[in-house]
Amino acid sequence: MTLTSFGPANRIQRSAETHPLTWRLRDDGEAVWLDEYQAKNGYAAARKAFAEMDQDAIVQTVKDAGLKGRGGAGFPTGVKWGLMPKDESINIRYLLCNADEMEPNTWKDRMLMEQLPHLLIEGMLISARALKTYRGYIFLRGEYTTAAKHLNRAVEEAKAAGLLGKNILGSGFDFELFVHTGAGRYICGEETALINSLEGRRANPRSKPPFPAAVGVWGKPTCVNNVETLCNVPAIIADGVDWYKSLAREGSEDMGTKLMGFSGKVKNPGLWELPFGVTGRELFEDYAGGMRDGFKLKAWQPGGAGTGFLLPEHLDAQMYAGGIAKVGTRMGTGLAMAVDDSVNMVSLLRNMEQFFARESCGFCTPCRDGLPWSVKLLMAIEQGKGQPGDIETLLGLVGFLGPGKTFCAHAPGAVEPLGSAIKYFRPEFEAGIAPVSAAVPPLARPIVIGA
Questions:
Q1: Mean per-residue pLDDT, 299-314
Q2: Who has the most CB within 10 Å: 14, 37, 61, 225?
Q3: How far apart are CA 425 and CA 111, in angstroms?
Q4: 427-436 pLDDT tens trace
Q5: pLDDT, tens only, 233-270
């Protein structure tokens, strides 16, 4: 894994003024432990929050800064915090960090946890103060063994320094933090499925309402935030709302910076902290270096496997939620994937849908049965055995599994790339349809959904 926060020439150095998430990173890629983190102004924001701000002021500052969730949904963080109950009699509340980074082609949270574990802990400490939560959990993807080791060490360092535990910084505020490794399911990225898993239950999403802010872990008020979201909090508290807003490019409706990346057959695959509003072309050409020699860009996904495919002509879209929405898909996690001209789109989609079908929790019928159905059709088309009507059936499934049609957002995310691939590369799907044979009985032909 590489991480640069500037162009290929590496001429511009990271600084606290422009790169709030990554300026403390070591050049050798090793973790920044407590002494070094504090030497780099670490926990100064926490000390300010505890000494100078009450809980409501912290929430309002985050809200005014325009911080939005960095896990893919993009919900305003301050608004989410404001949903937590104000009733002082409710003395048991929880803060959960969603670190179950299972989205294919996404590894941004892994970098933060492995190399800057104290940044996440400080973000959670300030958030806990704002939300009056006495206990926090980092729900970590089980395969992230290095991140688990580093986070556990950082938690112990913070405890020994009086930054976690009882009477933090002499304030009378108590906060315990635990690292919980999951068993490895994509669906745990959905916050209520994560809560069920943390409680020892099957990782199925819950019906909402009630929302976690009212009824969460063990029936108590709970706030769930993504790793990168929480890591933005210290800089906002330390340097203020106006500074944070000034980081984004003109035209962007999202504030601050974002960890963005590019993978695939590009010359410089990696991860960079960039201001919201940079264009996809800047990300692809200036940072990722364009395609490797001998390959051409055929398509790209802007933010993980659950986002729709775009064409090279869409690279001029600005990288923020509204900018990507203008070209027909979602920002997602902000880590893009380049598809080169040697890739068959049917094979790529079959691979993706197999993953999503396997990771379905199986709770609702459209997702449980619809995704495996799409895999069977794609396998037939891939082998040149597709039948007339198969493409229409796939498009019907895209509609039936779309937003609002299933219990959670798993299936809509799964079929979004399928619908866009058929839209832009339909001839590749048509090439897998076998000639009509009189020997095929009419009842053996596929049922066309929505025809």
A1: 95
A2: 225
A3: 34
A4: 999 999 988 7
A5: 999 999 999 999 999 999 999 999 999 999 999 999 99
Q: Is the peptide bond before 85 cis (omega within 30 degrees of 0)?
A: no
Those residues with Cβ within 8 angstroms of residue 116's Cβ, 6 or more apart along the chain or in another chain: 21, 22, 24, 25, 31, 32, 37, 231
pLDDT at 140: 94
pLDDT (0 to 100) of residue 164? 97
Q: 327-355 burial string, b = 16+ CB within 10 Å, else e? A: bbbbbbbbbbbbbbeebebbebbbebbbe
Tokens 């600005």 belong to residue: 318
- DSSP code for 343: -
Contact partners, residue 234, CB within 8 Å, separation at least 6 = 20, 45, 46, 119, 122, 123, 126
Residues 414-438: what's their mean pLDDT?
Answer: 90
Rounded Cα–Cα distance for residues 187 and 108 (Å): 18
Q: Is the sign of the CA dihedral 185, 187, 193, 194 positive or negative?
A: positive
| Domains of the chain listed by start with CATH number | 34-245 (3.40.50.11540), 262-340 (3.10.20.600), 345-444 (1.20.1440.230)
Please, where are the H alpha helices in 199-260?
227-239, 241-246
**Helix, strand counts (H, E) of the chain:** 16, 8
Both tokens of residue 425? 């590369």
Buried b (16+ CB within 10 A) or exposed e, 389-405: bbbebbbbbbeebeeee
Tell me which DSSP letter residue 94 carries.
E
Interhelix angle for 365-382 vs 390-400, to 10°? 150
Q: CA-CA distances (angstroms) from residue 383 to 8, 341, 379, 444?
A: 41, 20, 6, 18
Pairing of strands 257-263, 335-340: parallel
Alpha carbon distance 449, 392 (integer Å) = 7
Residue that has been written with the tokens 């490895």 in this structure: 184
Between CA 298 and CA 166 the distance in angstroms is 56
Question: What does pLDDT average to over the chain?
Answer: 91
